[in-house]
Write a structure and sequence with these properties.
With 215 residues, the chain is of the alpha/beta class. It has two domains: 7-133, HUPs (Rossmann fold); 143-213, no CATH class. 27% of the residues lie in helices and 31% in strands. It has five helices and eleven strands. It has helices at 17-31, 50-66, 80-90, 113-122, 210-213, and strands spanning 7-11, 35-41, 69-74, 95-99, 126-130, 147-154, 157-160, 168-177, 186-192, 195-202, 205-206. The strands form two sheets. The chain has a six-stranded antiparallel beta sheet with strand order 7-6-8-9-10-11, with no helix packed on it. Helix 3 packs parallel to helix 4. The radius of gyration is 18 Å and the shape is elongated.
């Protein structure tokens, strides 16, 4: 019986793109089927900054390792969900893999609206959502060793304390700083309701403070 499976991984600039590609690559090996990797770029590909270029180069190398086809498309005037669905149809994709919360551009996914929007467009294509928590043990490849930090509240904002910041202490946790950056950008691991959670940090600021707002 012919194998009609085709897998496509969607990646964006962030620490887990390569891990998603490898996850898709292993699945493609198991199913002995073609693998495609799609990056939806919010700017023209001729104006990528240095960090974005590094991600693109790393992804292309990983794609070559798995024999995958790398596709980059811009969404300056189109929704990412439309581009993903269109690409999936054009290549007859049967299984789609996206990251849940570890990638900056895909934060909408954790709120559910993006998933519903995508599901309405991809028909019978299977959708796999990979949570960043499941990839936490691989963060040594993309992040510095975790260090203990204190989270403080300053008005409506929640930030990592730098020892000089003033505000109410609301939590303590482990901060995993992204490699190759001079800013406090990465993932914060905290315990809430007896469960570990990973929160995105950008320049020391908690991007999703909902975990603290009930305190």
């Amino acid at each position: 019986m012919a194998n009609n499976e085709k897998i496509m991984v969607c990646v964006y600039y962030g620490p887990h793109g390569e891990r998603l590609i490898r996850r898709g690559g292993e699945l493609a090996k198991l199913l002995q089927c073609p693998l495609y990797v799609l990056s939806v770029i919010p700017v023209r590909d001729d104006v990528l900054d240095q960090e974005q270029e590094k991600f693109m180069a790393a992804w292309q190398t990983t794609c070559d390792e798995y024999g995958a086809t790398f596709i980059a498309k811009t969404n300056v005037d189109r929704k990412a969900a439309d581009i993903i669905a269109e690409t999936a149809r054009n290549h007859h994709i049967t299984q789609l893999i996206i990251g849940q919360s570890g990638q900056t551009r895909w934060q909408e996914i954790t709120q559910g609206s993006f998933v519903n929007e995508l599901l309405n467009r991809i028909g019978e294509t299977d959708l796999h959502i990979v949570a960043v928590q499941r990839m936490a043990h691989h963060m040594t490849e993309t992040h510095e060793r975790g260090r203990r930090v204190t989270v403080i509240r300053n008005g409506e904002h929640y930030r990592l304390s730098n020892g000089e910041s003033e505000g109410e202490t609301v939590a303590e946790g482990l901060f995993f700083k992204e490699l190759n950056t001079d800013f406090d950008t990465g993932l914060l691991k905290i315990m809430t309701n007896s469960e570990f959670r990973y929160l995105k940090i950008s320049n020391g600021k908690v991007l999703d403070p909902s975990s603290f707002q009930s305190k």
